[in-house]
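tool_call predict_complex ligand=SN-glycerol-3-phosphate
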Amino acid sequence: MNFFIDTADIDEIRAAYEMGLVDGVTTNPTLIKKAGKDHEKTIREISALVPGPISVETLSETAEGMLEEAREYVTWGNNIVIKIVMTAEGMKAVRALSEQGVKTNVTVTFSPLQALVAAKAGATYISPFVGRLDDIGHVGMDVISQIRTIYDQYDFETQILVASVRHLTHVLESALMGADVVTVPGKVLMQMLNHPLTDKGIATFLQDAKQWQKEPA
Ligand code: G3P
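tool_result ok
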């Protein structure tokens, strides 16, 4: 299972990367805006730091425009994945990029049928937004389970990349359901390390060790 980090904040990426927690990075226009720096500069910086796949989102509404953007973005690093929204034009672009050997990530998706369409088009990754489904009273993780069943049944190679992750239960269920990748905000990634019994156990060990530790001179 791969962990991607869902941010364009270079400090946040570096901190998690140094702990071996970052297999790749996903960005989108909102995350680039939040990071507050130039788009190209930010992506180049991330790509130089993290060897794994870096998703960069296209903004065009036509397949032709998306392909033109993709041609530019792949020059920003040797690990760029082109992120494309789930539309008819988007699927045309995914098919063309797949034939050219360019990796794609189909984004803003919410249903197993959209995932089936993306796989047929040759997408490398499908990104279902589980948190946004939860927000409107659905159970986002049910979609992940359904996509897993469909992809396994027909041996699709498209990887399930769980996105819009809000909390640790999303991460745990992604692992239990066999999602290929989960892209996690930095804050949630760090929360995975925590357990109150770990804190308590470390405090006890340090307290007990004081018996033989020398006082500093
Ligand atoms: O990568 C984009 C996706 O993770 C969006 O998350 O929190 O804006 O729904 P969110």
